Amino acid sequence: MSGNPAPRRDAPDGRGQHPTPTASRVATLRDALYAQPAAGTVQRSVRGPLRVAFWAALRAGLHLQVEGLRHEGPSVVVSNHPNLIDGLIVLFADPTMRPVARWHRNPMLRVGMWIAASLITTTGTPVTPHRGAYASALAHLRAGGRLWIAPEGGWQPTLTLRYPRTGAVRLAHAVGVPIQILAIVHGAHPGPTLATWRGWPRPRVLLRWGPVVTTTGDVAADIDAMMVALGRACGATWRRPDTTARTGDAAHE
Hey, how many other C-beta atoms are within 10 angstroms of the C-beta on 237? Predict the structure, then answer.
């Protein structure tokens, strides 16, 4: 999209130099405190410090790295979903994003969703346009915000991407914003499980900014372009649905 600002490196300062790791961490903590959606003073004063505390715990338990170019301005950011807490981990790459998260029965996970200022949905981003999470997500994008969505739906630690929901593409179409890839790579395996998790050495988690996907208005074509780019960025396999086989079967019915 020609009107989109050029991407920039995530870390440079105003002189075109890259700040020290300590300066980058301070900037991340600063953004965690101030880059929150509109909320009451009490909510902001509680949520900001909780984000900082959570990220301090993440840094103590994980070796987090961010690489690549982040697109500036409103956009829909999409990722693979190898771990249950990805909605909080990705905020380390961009604290200004609002995750779209599915409601969960676990109260601790619901607290995490609140810390992340997530848009909560019970059905994904529904087809009915003016309801629930979809309407809130549209309003956030139109106000110049950024969204994070895991289009596969629930988390799954495999190297084969599942067929996605259409919400990310439909939101990008509705507002006229691009889609950017943010790959999540957990060390040598796609996502930690109780069998593979080790506290030391700290597991490495790489957040890799991938390409910007300019949408065409064709939902199926844009989903395919998005998933191809996501698979390449995170090292996973995307298998296109075999519509030809289904068409052939239907012809013989």
Answer: 9
pTM of the model: 0.73
Single out the residue of 137, 142, 134, 149 nearest to residue 179, CA to CA: 149
Q: Helices (DSSP H) in the chain: which residue ranges? A: 21-34, 41-61, 86-89, 107-115, 132-142, 167-175, 219-234, 243-251
The C-alpha atoms of residue 145 and residue 118 are separated, in whole angstroms, by: 13
Residue 74 has pLDDT above 90, yes or no: yes
Q: Rounded to whole angstroms, how far apart are CA atoms 93 and 49? A: 18
The closest alpha carbon to 1, from 189, 178, 193, 234, belongs to 178
* Average of per-residue pLDDT across 158-186: 94
CA distance 45 to 12: 28
Q: How does pLDDT run across 192-249, given as a tens digit for each residue?
A: 655 666 666 778 899 999 999 999 999 999 999 999 999 999 999 998 876 544 333 3
Tell me how far apart the alpha carbons of residues 164 and 170 are, in angstroms, rounded to a whole number: 12
| Total residue length of the chain | 253
Token pair belonging to 206:
């790489």
DSSP code, position 154: S
Per residue in 149-159, pLDDT (tens digit) is 999 988 888 88
Cα–Cα distance for residue pair 136/119, rounded to 1 Å:
7
Residue 201 sits at φ, ψ, to 5 deg, of: -65, 160
